[in-house]
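Input (structure):
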């Protein structure tokens, strides 16, 4: 094992077997009846002597932060114990121009909306392009971003998501050049790409391709406890002090030392063994994508296919998008059968597909189990099913109030038929494609109303509205 300053400091403290007259109240796990949780609680400490302070790092945490930055090719890195969400919030709150304008994808993670509420951001949305078979947005285009930057001279930052939830990556290099030409920062939500820097066959990291700042949700793809993430600043990024101020404002003063230690250990593992682990996973992915693709009734997307769709430049080989296009069941039923009959839980399911999220720690028997289970299901459910509803692309929004102003505004509930011309007070996003057609503060125009009515009649899945049947909707007073 290489240097793991945080883990080493915790281990040393525990070995000294001190009487703990400090927080937390379980004093090393006493009183916790579950043995596995009690064992973890032995490492659940606070900022006692020797364990450093996350908000004023001087010893173990400072040293571990330097090692983290070195591993990811960053100028400076911060440990996130509140998940990638807190990194996204910190970056939005660190921006400083009077306009507060930020260019961001319409289908960005919900944490972007929370960050805009906190920061008072004025959003300008990048249009989404849908894949016709999957019904989801996979990437945003550098040309669209360049056009929007040209039309909005006062945009301070471009904030994109790459890779997507489905593993598809934008052309970060081209987007970086467009942002630089407009004197705008490029910020990247790379939550699902924490493993990219450690193997050349995987997509390039956003930092490598010119991003100014990047957020990684390390727990998604590395051996890190839930909520473990990090925020990296690029080597040319000059607003580190503002980012740290926002980061410290948002981050708990009682950080989880098990989470910190797991990040420290995972970084060390990736330096020592990451390339070998990822190499094995890459070969297994190539082999089993082909095997699953050969199952009659199933289609498993490969990288070449996905790169032909929209603006996708690279693809994470560990995300498997599988369509039951020749089966009598849809993606929801396929996921249910895998769960109930084969004890396999996939990451996500939709009427059109399932998403299996593989790890570098899945071994050949795990891949084989998925393949054999899919083969068995396909043999029992051959035949075509009724086509799923083709969700249309939402109309572009008209922002009337900033997200922050809308969040604090008074609201009321009206029938959908009465909402035309009013301002929305809640989010409405159909799945698929997961692109909000409404966010709080946006006008319910005639076009938006027609789209909402279409969604209601189509009975698609909706996230956000208090009334998911969409007979009623919340509007601002």
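Output (sequence):
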């Amino acid at each position: 094992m290489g240097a793991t300053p945080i883990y080493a400091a915790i281990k040393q403290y525990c070995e000294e077997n001190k009487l703990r007259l400090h927080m937390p109240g379980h004093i090393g796990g006493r009183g916790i009846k579950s043995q596995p949780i009690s064992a973890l609680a032995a490492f659940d400490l606070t900022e006692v002597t020797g364990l450093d302070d996350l908000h004023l790092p001087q010893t173990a945490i400072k040293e571990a932060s330097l090692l983290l930055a070195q591993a990811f090719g960053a100028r400076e890195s911060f440990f996130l114990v509140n998940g990638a969400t807190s990194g996204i919030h910190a970056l939005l709150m660190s921006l400083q121009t009077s306009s507060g304008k930020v260019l961001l994808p319409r289908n960005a993670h919900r944490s972007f909306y929370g960050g805009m509420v906190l920061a008072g951001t004025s959003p300008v949305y990048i249009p989404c392009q849908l894949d016709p078979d999957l019904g989801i947005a996979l990437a945003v285009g550098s040309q669209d971003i360049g056009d929007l930057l040209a039309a909005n001279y006062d945009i301070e930052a471009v904030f994109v998501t790459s890779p997507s939830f489905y593993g598809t990556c934008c052309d970060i290099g081209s987007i970086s050049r467009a942002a630089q030409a407009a004197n705008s920062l490029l910020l990247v939500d790379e939550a699902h790409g924490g493993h990219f820097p450690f193997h050349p066959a995987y997509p390039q990291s956003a930092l490598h391709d010119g991003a100014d700042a990047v957020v990684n949700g390390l727990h998604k793809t590395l051996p890190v406890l839930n909520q473990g993430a990090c925020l990296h600043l690029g080597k040319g990024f000059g607003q580190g002090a503002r980012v740290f101020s926002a980061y410290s404002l948002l981050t708990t003063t009682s950080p989880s030392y098990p989470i910190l230690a797991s990040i420290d250990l995972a970084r060390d593992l990736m330096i020592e063994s990451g390339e070998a682990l990822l190499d094995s996973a890459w070969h297994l992915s190539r082999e089993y994508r082909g095997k699953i693709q050969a199952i009659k009734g199933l289609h498993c997307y490969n990288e070449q296919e996905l790169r032909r769709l929209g603006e996708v430049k690279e693809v994470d080989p560990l995300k498997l998008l599988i369509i039951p296009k020749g089966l009598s069941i849809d993606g929801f039923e396929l996921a249910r059968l895998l769960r109930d009959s084969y004890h396999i839980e996939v990451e996500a399911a939709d009427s059109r597909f399932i998403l299996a999220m593989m790890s570098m720690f899945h071994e050949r028997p795990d891949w084989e189990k998925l393949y054999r289970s899919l083969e068995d299901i396909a043999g029992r459910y051959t035949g075509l099913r009724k086509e799923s509803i083709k969700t249309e692309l939402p109309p572009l929004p008209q922002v009337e109030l900033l997200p922050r102003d809308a969040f604090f505004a008074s609201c009321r509930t009206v029938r959908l038929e009465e909402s035309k011309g009013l301002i929305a007070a809640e989010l409405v996003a159909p799945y698929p494609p997961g692109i909000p057609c409404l966010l709080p503060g946006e006008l319910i125009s005639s076009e938006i109303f027609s789209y909402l009515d279409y969604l209601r009649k189509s009975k698609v899945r909706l996230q956000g509205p208090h009334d998911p049947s969409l007979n009623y909707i919340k509007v601002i007073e």
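Notes: The chain has 14 helices and 17 strands. The CA atoms of residues 212 and 234 lie 5 Å apart.
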